[in-house]
Structures are given as structure tokens and as C-alpha cells.
Give the backbone structure.
Amino acid sequence: MNKHNPLSKSGSLLERAAQVYDYVPVAGHQSVHSSAPEILPPEQGYQQVVPAAPRAPVYEGPRVIVDREKLRDAGFIVPDGPVTGISEEFRIIKRQLLLAARGNQKQAPLQHGERILICSAHPDEGKTFCALNLALSIAAEKDNEVLLVDADFAKPSILSSLGLEGSRGLMDALADPDLPVEDCIIHTDIEGLTILPAGDQTNHDTEYLASSRTEQVLNRLTQHNPNRIVIFDSPPALSASPASVLATHVGQVLMIVKADETTETALRDALSLMAGCEHIQLLLNGTKFSPTGRRFGSYYGYGE
Ligand SMILES: Nc1ncnc2c1ncn2[C@@H]1O[C@H](COP(=O)(O)OP(=O)(O)OP(=O)(O)O)[C@@H](O)[C@H]1O
Ligand SMILES: [Mg+2]
């Protein structure tokens, strides 16, 4: 890996991340270059995918209202809002992930490719930012719905980012066999977007995740919703053990690298902890965050 390579200003943030870090297969991983679907321009993406299964019956229960202003202020994609640099970037990113999840005439879908873990080596590298934006972007798809799971059990932040109140979540359903995980899902007023909170904190989150019940619980998330993409907002790989266990349950990992901060060593260590998943892609996140000038990938010229 050479972090100091001159950077091409073209290509998506996925392509540029692979270039910056000269991403090659690590033992136990498949390279995004060799086995992943080619990075397709948006118009060649999901349209080719085999027809999706019908949506689950329309949910008629209560829906919580997502605070759009809060979304806008924090730099997230606003549903039905204007097209922005961020919304365009996530369009490209989601095509690649959806293609791997659903497959097309040329390639089979990945096993559990509909489960996508958003991870990074350290805190503050943009996992939650990317997980939520990806979820908002996928929710806008006609043929897909998305369940965003807050899997950062020690420091959950999805609910607060959406301006929502805390409630039962994944850890409660894992800990209590009598609690159906579906009952913990929050339906939002954003069409296609549902949320599964982290649930109660426990000192045994890794043990619960590693238990045999986890797979059953996760299967329930999609068994009646074949069009559902499940995005997990992970804790940082190098500071919390649940991340590597979560990787064993998903079909895709999106590893966020913070352009001018994530070191090669940290990235390699984080990737080796994700060895439980064979399909890992890097996503380059921007560096120059400021309350007024937030732009995704702006350091490398995106949107200029
Ligand atoms: N591309 C970006 N553009 C603008 N702001 C960003 C971007 N990426 C991250 N941020 C902001 O940086 C801060 C840290 O990001 P975020 O909370 O997503 O990190 P994290 O990796 O989830 O951290 P933690 O491991 O502590 O949960 C947040 O305020 C977020 O809104
Ligand atoms: Mg986070």
C-alpha cells in the first residue's frame, strides 16, 4: 500500500480508496479487483439485475417522524431533497453493493450479500455518516427497502442522528428468546426506511453476537422481506470486539478509510479482523469536515 500515491481525481470513492491504499487481497479476503463486480457506471448497474421479489405487505402500523432539518444540518441526504455531491456519490456506491447483493445475469448474488457491515479501524472515521447516507440512498430505490441496524452497542448513535427516541433493539432480542426481533423495528415516515436500534447495553455483547441464536435472529430480518437490504453500523474494528463477530454474519463489508488519517497499518489490522467476511470493499471518506464546509471526499477534489 502506498498512501502517498498521486491521486486520480476521477472515479468513485470506492475506486479511489482502492487506488490510494493499493488494495490487494489479504489472506482470507477476496480482492475487490478480482472477485467483486466491476465498478459499473450507474446506468449499467441495478437495472440489469434479475427482477426483485415483490415487496412485503405494506406496513400499516405507526411510523415515527424523522427530523429532516436535523438530517440536513448534519450533512445527510435529505429524502426528496436536492441532488447533492453526497447523494450522487452514494448513488454510485449503492449500485455496486446492490449488484453484489442481488446479482444479475452474469453473476450470482453473494451469500447474505443483502447484509452489509459498515466498519472502519478507528472511531470518528465516518461509519455512521456513511451507514445512514447509504440507507437513505437505498430507501429511495423502488425495488429495495432498507433496515438500518445500529450495531454500535456501546455507543449507539443512529437514533439520535435521526432525532428519534431510544427503544428496544437488537441486543434485547438477542438476549431474550421471547422477544421477536421484528417487534423492535422502528418504521419511519421515510418510505422504505426502517431502523433496528442497538438495544440495551450489556458487557456481553460479543458473546451474544457469537451465539448460535444470532443467525436465527438475523434471518428473521429478511425472511418476510426479501427486498430488504440490512445495513449494520459497526463499532470501530480496532477498539471493539463485536465488529469482527459481526463480519462473520454479513455478506459484504464496506471499510471506511478516512483519507488523510487511516494509516496503512491500522487498515491492514482492521481488514484482518474482518476475515470472517470474504467480500470487503474500501470506501474513501473525505477529510475536511467543518460545520460550514462539509463535503464528502472533498480533499481529493470531489465536487470541485
Ligand atoms: N464525509 C463527511 N462529510 C461531512 N461530515 C462527515 C463526513 N464523514 C463524517 N462526518 C462527520 O464526522 C463526525 C464523525 O463521523 P461518524 O459519527 O460517522 O464517525 P464514526 O466512525 O461512526 O465514529 P464512531 O466510531 O465514534 O461511531 C460526525 O459528526 C459526522 O457527521
Ligand atoms: Mg458511529
User: Anything to note?
Assistant: The CA atoms of residues 107 and 254 lie 20 Å apart. The radius of gyration is 18 Å.
